[in-house]
Design brief:
The chain is mainly β. The chain has one domain (2-71): L,D-transpeptidase catalytic domain-like. The protein contains one helix and six strands; from the N terminus they run E-E-E-E-E-H-E. Strands 2-3-4-5 form a four-stranded mixed beta sheet, with helices on one face. A two-stranded antiparallel sheet has the order 1-6.
Length: 91
């Protein structure tokens, strides 16, 4: 969470240690907002903000180096060991 600024732009498809990204807008270190073909409805990232491809295209057109990025919300709690799907709802 915090207030950041776009520090780097990477057009099109790029590949990093954690996979491929589309139209990436970096805002803190190696963390970026970027397009992805897989956008989960639950926490599934190592810190990046995954966006649907069409959304990332439009955002990339709009955002420039130095533009503000405001990250808000509550961090997701860490899962307890053994708290997988199989154990839910059973007593």
């Amino acid at each position: 969470m915090g207030d950041f600024r776009v520090t780097q732009r990477a057009p099109g498809w790029t590949t990093g240690p954690l996979g491929t990204m589309f139209d990436s807008l970096y805002f803190v270190g190696g963390i970026a907002m970027h397009g992805s073909t897989k956008v989960s409805l639950r926490p599934a990232s190592h810190g990046c903000v995954r966006l649907p491809l069409e959304t990332s295209k439009r955002l990339y057109e709009l955002a420039k180096i130095g533009d503000p990025v405001y990250v808000r919300g509550e961090p997701f709690p860490k899962r307890r060991a053994g708290a997988g799907k199989a154990g839910r709802g059973r007593r």
